[in-house]
Amino acid sequence: MDITVFTLFPEMFAVPLGVSIVGRAAARGIVRIGVCNFRDFATDKHRSVDDYPYGGGAGMVLRPEPLFAAVEAANLPLGTPIILLTPQGRTFNQEKAMHFAKLSSLALICGHYEGVDERVRVHLATEELSLGDFVLTGGEIAAMAVVDAVVRLLPGVIDATSIEEESHHSGLLEYPHYTRPAEFRGLGVPDIVLSGNHGAIAKWRREQALRRTWLRRPDLLENANLTGHELEHLRTWALDEVVRSPLGDVTATRALPDAAE
């Protein structure tokens, strides 16, 4: 896979993209990551990439010329998604990461300052993405997160079985993990994980993942592939929650998804 990042601060990517899983994937040729400083495509003597917004207002706005020129000079393969990283974008998630991991190329534009000229959004970028409902100084950290999330999903980077059991892959958060020692400062681990009964362990892990998702991210359950038995678990937990509510308020019950076909 080829990933191209357009940024004003290429030095920020040297370490994050050169170590750990992403660095090893690049060293093995599984992914090629290019970082382009679009200031190099500024045309005035001051190498300006931003200017005051028309109509007035706070902050500076990235000009369109350097960004268009940088992307065009990169000769991206036809159909390459060009992602503008901005707080106004749709939230990046695991589903989007899995979609990108199936592609052969991807381009990321790191926004900065007050934002980018609207012509970049409309006529250059094919999509806008955000890490969440908060504002960063620039799009560089968001770009690093997207690269990391995508690269680790590429075939041959990490064990495929490990990916299948991770949070968000199946629509649920991941189940609890335990390792040695079996007892630490008087704190033990569930007997089931020491039983050697892999069928029972798998069932326990699925139930724990379901309950953890229900408690922490119930919004994810709407799109989770749940069985009728698992929905019964949710209904039981929801009823227990209402009973425990001091006001007996039915609004304490979390929304329950429909059963899978």
Brief descriptors of the model:
single chain; alpha/beta; Alpha/beta knot; Trp Operon Repressor, Chain A; 2 domains; 3-stranded mixed sheet; 16% strand; elongated
Characterise the protein shown here:
The protein is an alpha/beta fold. It folds into two domains: 2-160, SPOUT methyltransferase, trefoil knot domain (Alpha/beta knot, 3-Layer(aba) Sandwich), CATH 3.40.1280.10; 183-252, tRNA(m1g37)methyltransferase, domain 2 (Trp Operon Repressor, Chain A). It contains eight helices and ten strands. The strands form three sheets. A five-stranded parallel sheet has the order 2-1-6-5-8, with helices on both faces. β9 and β10 form a beta hairpin. The chain is elongated and about 70 Å long.
- Helix percent reads 25-40%
The H/E string reads: EHEEEHEHEEHEHHEEHH
> Number of DSSP helices?
8
Could you give the distance between the termini? 36 Å
Write the CATH architecture name of the largest domain: 3-Layer(aba) Sandwich
The total of beta strands comes to: 10
Q: How many domains?
A: 2
Largest sheet strand order: 2-1-6-5-8
Structural class determined from secondary elements: alpha/beta
Mean pLDDT: 90
User: How can the largest sheet be summarized?
Assistant: 5 strands, parallel
Short description:
The chain is an alpha/beta fold. The chain contains eight helices and ten strands. The protein has a five-stranded parallel beta sheet with strand order 2-1-6-5-8, with helices on both faces. A three-stranded mixed beta sheet has the order 3-4-7.
